[in-house]
Write a structure and sequence with these properties.
Length: about 650
Amino acid sequence: MIRPLLLPAFALILSPLPGLATEALPLPVPELASQARDPLAEGLAAASLRDWERAQAAVAQAGPVAADIIEWMRLRAGEGTLTDYEAFLQRRADWPGLALVRSRGETAVARSITPSRVLAWFGTRSPASVEGLLAAVKAHRALGQEQEATKWLTSAWPGLRLSAIDQQKVVEEAGPALSRRDHEARLDALLWEGRNAEARQMLPLVSEGWQKLAEARLALREEREGVDALIAAVPEALARDPGLAFARFEWRMKKSRTDGALEILRERSSAPEALGRPEVWARRRAVLARGLLREGKAAEAYKIAASHHLSRSAAQADLEFLAGFIALRAMKDPARALSHFRTLGDSVSTPISVARADYWQARALEDLRQPEEAKAAYTRAARHQTAYYGLLAAEKLGLQMEDTLVSPPPLADWKGAPFLGSSVTEAALLLYRANDPANARRFLLHLAEDREAAELAALGAFALEKGDPHLAVLLGKQAAARGIILPGIYFPDPGLLPEDLAVERPLALAVARRESEFRADAVSPAGALGLMQLMPGTAKLMAEKLGLPVDIPALTRDPAYNAKLGSAYLAHLAEEFGPSIALRAAGYNAGPGRPRAWITQFGDPRRAEVDVIDWVELVPFEETRTYIMRVTEGLAIYQARRTPGAPVAITGLLRGAARG
């Protein structure tokens, strides 16, 4: 039951919104905002100008939640007294973005003269700002707790972001509590993280040897002239520094001196201590290993991939997979590959990654002639049919698509759901009406973080029924990362795409879901627009080809228009690449020139003699490899809803019509 105190806000959403028919899927929420002097909209406009007095006045009669939305923004902007921060955090402890509220509140904490109040603010949290650190240190010292003050200084010092003035404040307050070794540790951390200006500020605080080491690392990172002389000037005791080795490695990579970079990487990959920070080397390590694999140097590629010295992380999982793939497919060593795939399986938890580990374990077990164990691994992978590798496993076993993916259960009834009783939900609804869908989604995604499957399904249904399929997909992905699959919101068909498209509608849906997550007004940093993320030049060409008016602003206003042009481009790609989704998706993501080059390099995946699964794995760009996989997942699921009962056939989608 909805709590009475929230009824005014929910009266807005439980009854039809302006222009919204509740029985039909509406236009996206941003189009639904009431423009008739919405008080929160006026408050948000004033807040954007940091006119907090006018912002607060605008929402004075709009209720406590609207008032606290403005207060949330004001405090996140660093305004307010310590009392303001304390009261808000107590009142809205379940709102999103509180880490920034607490961080900004440290400025107010620094103005407090009561040591116990200062320390109560932090509790067990470390300060996130120089003001907070100095306030905590002074409070401990005022209470005679010098050891605690020193502990806070030494733990915060390496990572704090500091101007030259702030650095001087900390050094003066710290006194002997920060040693030269502490300063060297901070300098080293700053150099690893590429924070060059802050690193330079530290030079007067370290030894002459460390100054020379830092100058060499900085010169390499900035690609300055004279790096050889600066490297030679580093004292012998510091010449083996892992950070210097990485700077030299990066410099060689940027200069396309790949052989020299490999020489450093091989030498340094003997132990984690020699790498210093193995995770910083990981991205380049994968690139080099894949390059060696493409050159036919499988054994060397394997050594580079396998000697990563990483603990559990996304980078470790990717390199374990890559080492296993090289061992299995290029070195024909399934036992070695199986070891890597099992390590991968022990390191991951999301459906996509779990399915990848189990699928490739099955492939290795097949090569080891262990059919029962292979079947068991394929079966485990096939439990995840929303994932590319799970679908490959299902195909191998001759399975049909799962019933819940083909015919998703009806949308949940959200009208009595517990989340309606939360001030977080009320804030989101008010933000929608004030035409701030980005923050509205932020509130609802935060609300979903700890909800169970039934309430997540209700939230997703709410998002779809109220016209925000983008939020529905985000909720579906958030749930899937926790192992909760909600097919109707994870792979929705929100009614944004017309039926009369130049390609099959399931493909257009799969691409739109991947490109914008069904956000009709999306604009990428590169300038791609709308539902299917079209560049203006491509949109113009497709509009002219279809005989439609060229209307670039409509790409983010009219999802049907966008879908027609995006689908026309997919059809255009099919003229060259045929029905192969591997090639068409690659062309849509990376441009048609890339798959043309890859056909020359790796073979034509449409041909029977080319292993299309290997072909996808050999695509050099991680973004494009992932793109092909995610579009293929969506296409398989949306197709199955139109033609239920057919066996899963992923390799057929990837390959398209076979060529002799």
